[in-house]
Amino acid sequence: MKVEELLRGKGREVVTIGTHATIDTLVRRLRLEKIGAVVVSDDGETVDGIISERDVVNGLADHGAELRAMMVSELMTRNVVTCAPSDEIRDIMRLMTQKRIRHLPVIYHGKLAGVISIGDVVKNRLEDMQMEANVLRDYLAVRQ
What we know:
The chain is α+β, with helices and mostly antiparallel strands.
Protein backbone atom coordinates (compact mmCIF):
# COMPACT_ATOMS: atom_id res chain seq x y z
CA MET A 1 0.00 0.00 0.00
CA LYS A 2 1.11 3.53 -0.73
CA VAL A 3 0.82 6.72 1.32
CA GLU A 4 -1.72 8.04 -1.22
CA GLU A 5 -4.12 5.21 -0.42
CA LEU A 6 -3.78 5.81 3.31
CA LEU A 7 -4.53 9.53 2.82
CA ARG A 8 -7.58 8.69 0.72
CA GLY A 9 -8.98 6.77 3.65
CA LYS A 10 -8.08 9.13 6.50
CA GLY A 11 -8.32 12.46 4.73
CA ARG A 12 -5.87 15.15 3.76
CA GLU A 13 -6.66 17.76 6.37
CA VAL A 14 -3.52 19.24 7.89
CA VAL A 15 -3.47 21.37 11.01
CA THR A 16 -0.86 24.10 10.67
CA ILE A 17 0.40 26.93 12.83
CA GLY A 18 2.47 29.96 11.90
CA THR A 19 6.07 30.51 12.99
CA HIS A 20 5.13 33.58 15.05
CA ALA A 21 2.44 31.88 17.14
CA THR A 22 3.25 31.41 20.81
CA ILE A 23 3.83 28.05 22.43
CA ASP A 24 0.78 28.81 24.59
CA THR A 25 -1.33 29.05 21.42
CA LEU A 26 0.25 25.85 20.10
CA VAL A 27 -0.52 23.91 23.28
CA ARG A 28 -4.14 25.03 23.21
CA ARG A 29 -4.38 24.03 19.55
CA LEU A 30 -2.93 20.58 20.21
CA ARG A 31 -5.52 20.06 22.94
CA LEU A 32 -8.41 21.43 20.88
CA GLU A 33 -7.57 19.28 17.85
CA LYS A 34 -6.63 16.24 20.00
CA ILE A 35 -3.40 15.74 18.06
CA GLY A 36 0.25 15.27 18.97
CA ALA A 37 1.99 17.48 16.41
CA VAL A 38 1.38 20.43 14.15
CA VAL A 39 3.05 21.33 10.87
CA VAL A 40 4.57 24.80 11.05
CA SER A 41 3.72 26.76 7.92
CA ASP A 42 3.23 30.46 7.38
CA ASP A 43 1.46 29.97 4.06
CA GLY A 44 -0.31 26.63 4.64
CA GLU A 45 1.44 25.07 1.64
CA THR A 46 5.13 24.80 2.48
CA VAL A 47 6.64 23.13 5.53
CA ASP A 48 8.70 25.52 7.65
CA GLY A 49 8.97 23.01 10.49
CA ILE A 50 7.06 20.67 12.74
CA ILE A 51 6.40 20.87 16.44
CA SER A 52 5.19 18.09 18.70
CA GLU A 53 4.25 17.39 22.28
CA ARG A 54 7.76 16.02 22.74
CA ASP A 55 9.23 19.38 21.66
CA VAL A 56 7.01 21.14 24.19
CA VAL A 57 8.09 18.83 27.01
CA ASN A 58 11.75 19.32 26.13
CA GLY A 59 11.20 23.07 25.93
CA LEU A 60 9.54 23.08 29.33
CA ALA A 61 12.54 21.29 30.81
CA ASP A 62 14.90 23.83 29.23
CA HIS A 63 12.93 27.08 29.64
CA GLY A 64 10.39 26.53 32.41
CA ALA A 65 7.36 28.81 32.54
CA GLU A 66 8.97 31.22 30.03
CA LEU A 67 8.19 28.64 27.36
CA ARG A 68 4.54 29.71 27.05
CA ALA A 69 5.48 33.13 25.66
CA MET A 70 8.13 31.84 23.24
CA MET A 71 7.39 31.64 19.52
CA VAL A 72 6.88 28.34 17.74
CA SER A 73 9.86 29.15 15.50
CA GLU A 74 12.14 29.05 18.55
CA LEU A 75 11.20 25.47 19.43
CA MET A 76 10.16 23.76 16.20
CA THR A 77 12.14 21.11 14.37
CA ARG A 78 13.43 22.77 11.21
CA ASN A 79 14.87 19.78 9.34
CA VAL A 80 11.60 17.96 8.77
CA VAL A 81 11.56 14.44 7.42
CA THR A 82 8.77 14.15 4.86
CA CYS A 83 7.34 11.56 2.52
CA ALA A 84 5.57 11.48 -0.84
CA PRO A 85 2.17 10.04 -1.79
CA SER A 86 3.98 7.42 -3.90
CA ASP A 87 6.00 6.06 -0.95
CA GLU A 88 5.22 2.55 0.28
CA ILE A 89 3.75 2.27 3.78
CA ARG A 90 6.22 -0.50 4.69
CA ASP A 91 9.09 1.90 3.91
CA ILE A 92 7.42 4.65 5.95
CA MET A 93 7.08 2.24 8.90
CA ARG A 94 10.79 1.51 8.74
CA LEU A 95 11.67 5.22 8.46
CA MET A 96 9.45 6.21 11.37
CA THR A 97 10.89 3.44 13.53
CA GLN A 98 14.53 4.14 12.68
CA LYS A 99 14.28 7.90 13.14
CA ARG A 100 11.81 7.73 16.04
CA ILE A 101 9.36 9.98 14.19
CA ARG A 102 5.65 9.90 14.94
CA HIS A 103 4.37 12.36 12.31
CA LEU A 104 5.36 12.76 8.66
CA PRO A 105 4.16 15.58 6.43
CA VAL A 106 3.30 14.37 2.93
CA ILE A 107 4.67 16.56 0.16
CA TYR A 108 3.36 16.50 -3.41
CA HIS A 109 4.87 18.83 -6.04
CA GLY A 110 6.51 20.87 -3.30
CA LYS A 111 3.27 21.47 -1.39
CA LEU A 112 1.80 20.04 1.78
CA ALA A 113 -0.64 17.28 0.82
CA GLY A 114 -1.36 15.62 4.18
CA VAL A 115 0.17 14.21 7.33
CA ILE A 116 0.46 10.60 8.42
CA SER A 117 1.09 9.49 11.96
CA ILE A 118 2.48 6.31 13.40
CA GLY A 119 -1.08 5.62 14.56
CA ASP A 120 -2.32 5.78 10.96
CA VAL A 121 0.41 3.37 9.87
CA VAL A 122 -0.25 0.91 12.70
CA LYS A 123 -4.02 1.01 12.10
CA ASN A 124 -3.42 0.28 8.42
CA ARG A 125 -1.14 -2.65 9.23
CA LEU A 126 -3.65 -4.10 11.70
CA GLU A 127 -6.40 -3.90 9.08
CA ASP A 128 -4.14 -5.69 6.57
CA MET A 129 -3.38 -8.42 9.10
CA GLN A 130 -7.09 -8.85 9.91
CA MET A 131 -7.90 -9.19 6.21
CA GLU A 132 -5.14 -11.79 5.77
CA ALA A 133 -6.45 -13.74 8.77
CA ASN A 134 -9.99 -13.67 7.36
CA VAL A 135 -8.81 -14.90 3.95
CA LEU A 136 -6.88 -17.77 5.58
CA ARG A 137 -9.87 -18.63 7.80
CA ASP A 138 -12.18 -18.69 4.74
CA TYR A 139 -9.70 -20.83 2.83
CA LEU A 140 -9.47 -23.35 5.64
CA ALA A 141 -13.25 -23.46 6.03
CA VAL A 142 -13.68 -24.29 2.35
CA ARG A 143 -11.04 -27.04 2.48
CA GLN A 144 -12.67 -28.89 5.37
